[in-house]
């Protein structure tokens, strides 16, 4: 039986004040958990310590939005996996489409980050997803399969025992236009089938999240699908009551 997981991706948003206000809304509501759902928030790096301190003793877990594949040394501006662990992060989002597109992150680099993150003890949340052009030209499945396969090739299928995959169609991110529950379920089933081709047990156990305009209005229908185990939530995770409602939508 897979546990449900809802992850808030705060992206490059927030100030000390706004984050404290957001947590004042979240912490009391989540202090004893919600429906047995695992809840993770991923603030920008400078606020990791503040959030770690504020969520102490509460059922919210800390994550980060990116990490270097290097351990330490002369990499100005980079953050190592060990540093994230030291700041009490347990999860890290990898390969978000904004990083693939704006920072030119390749499947190979993301796979290296995945391995480095796991070696430090972090749980990677590997983001995959097709663009609108790729969906329109019929290559959505192949695109996502290639993104997952890059990690399978470098890390091996058993590495997915300690990882999460988030399917986020690029055209649905921040657009208010979520994939339909059927479109999302179809891609999730395809990802699980791809992994099952390597190891059926790992495929059955891995948490697959949907991301892309998840809101309190569409979460319940998405989360009801057989292969959707929760969500990676951007915009709506900046609003405490919307995020709590999304967590409550897990059946
Ligand atoms: P969104 O972002 O919920 O604002 O669409 C999701 C994400 O980018 O992870």
Description of the molecule:
This protein is of the alpha/beta class. It contains eleven helices and eight strands. Strands 1-2-3-4-5-6-7-8 form an eight-stranded parallel β-barrel, surrounded by five helices. Helix 3 links the parallel strand 3 and strand 4. Helix 1 packs parallel to helix 11, helix 5 packs across helix 7 and helix 7 packs parallel to helix 8. It is globular and about 45 Å long. The model has no long low-confidence stretch (mean pLDDT 97). The structure holds 2-phosphoglycolic acid.
* Share of residues in strands: 15-25%
Write out the CATH superfamily name: Aldolase class I
Q: Which architecture would the CATH scheme give at its second level?
A: Alpha-Beta Barrel
Contiguous uncertain segments of 5+ residues = none
The SSE order reads EHEHEHEHHEHHEHHEHEH
DSSP helical segment count: 11
Spatial separation of the terminal alpha carbons: 13 Å
- When the domains are counted, the total is 1
Mean pLDDT: 97
Note the main sheet. 8 strands, parallel, barrel
CATH fold type: TIM Barrel
Subunit structure: Homodimer.
Organism: marine sediment metagenome
EC number: 5.3.1.1
Pfam families: TIM
């Amino acid at each position: 039986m897979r546990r449900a997981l809802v992850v808030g991706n705060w992206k490059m948003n927030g100030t000390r004040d706004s984050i404290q206000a957001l947590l004042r809304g979240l912490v009391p509501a989540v202090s004893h958990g919600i429906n047995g759902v695992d809840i993770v928030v991923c603030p920008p790096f400078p606020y990791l310590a503040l959030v770690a301190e504020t969520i102490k003793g509460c059922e919210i877990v800390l994550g980060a939005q990116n990490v270097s594949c290097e351990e330490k040394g002369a990499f100005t501006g980079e953050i190592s996996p060990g540093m994230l662990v030291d700041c009490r992060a347990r999860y890290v989002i990898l390969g978000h489409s904004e990083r693939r597109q704006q920072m030119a992150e390749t499947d190979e680099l993301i796979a290296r980050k995945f391995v480095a993150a796991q070696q430090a003890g972090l749980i990677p949340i590997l983001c995959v997803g097709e663009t609108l052009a790729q969906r329109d030209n019929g290559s959505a499945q192949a695109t996502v399969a290639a993104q997952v396969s890059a990690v399978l090739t470098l890390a091996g299928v058993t590495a997915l025992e300690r990882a999460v995959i988030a399917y986020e169609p690029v055209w649905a991110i921040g657009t208010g236009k979520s994939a339909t529950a059927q479109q999302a379920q179809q891609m999730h089933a395809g990802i699980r089938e791809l992994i099952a081709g390597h190891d059926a047990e790992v495929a059955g156990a891995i948490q697959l999240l949907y991301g892309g305009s998840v809101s309190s209005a569409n979460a319940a229908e998405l989360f009801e699908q057989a292969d959707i185990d929760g969500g990676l939530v951007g915009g709506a995770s900046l609003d405490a009551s919307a995020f709590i409602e999304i967590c409550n939508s897990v059946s």
